Amino acid sequence: MSAKSAISKEIFAPLDERMLGAVQVKRRTKKKIPFLATGGQGEYLTYICLSVTNKKPTQASITKVKQFEGSTSFVRRSQWMLEQLRQVNGIDPNRDSAEFDLLFENAFDQWVASTASEKCTFFQILHHTCQRYLTDRKPEFINCQSKIMGGNSILHSAADSVSSAVQKASQALNERGERLGRAEEKTEDLKNSAQQFAETAHKLAMKHKC
User: Fold this and answer.
1) Are residues 103 and 189 in the same domain?
2) Full-model pTM
3) pLDDT grade, residue 41 (50/70/90)?
């Protein structure tokens, strides 16, 4: 089982929540955290997770989850309601970058994802979730690539491909229909010509017979 599947099962499923996406991160700037604040557990992995409640009305939240070195379990740390998210900073709109910032009402963190593609996927899910579940004040997305802001660009691409294929198939059928139509016309012309030839031959035969 992957780490993200384990987080979904261990952290969110017991609370009747559904995890939509997660990204493994490290801080770009180290915070000075007292040894006792971590429980003396040393190094750890950090995941930023996006989830929604299964119960209506749907509530979306962003949760920081940690896995300490030597442990197979995950620990829920900080959590914010999606309404508290004020700004999402993609750092560089002109290139793939693993760095990003999240600004909440009462917190600000600077992160770097494990890969740029993992960050991109998480941003697409986050942007789509904000558009779907936030009606009033939506967070500001800045310095983000257009493919991230598109959110469902993959779906649009697939739809365009299907539409193009249907159009080509329709065009091919039309062209085939035109060819069949021309063939039918030629067949009818040949049939008429053959009938006229038969009638002429019959008349000539009768004339010579007389």
Assistant:
1) no
2) 0.67
3) low
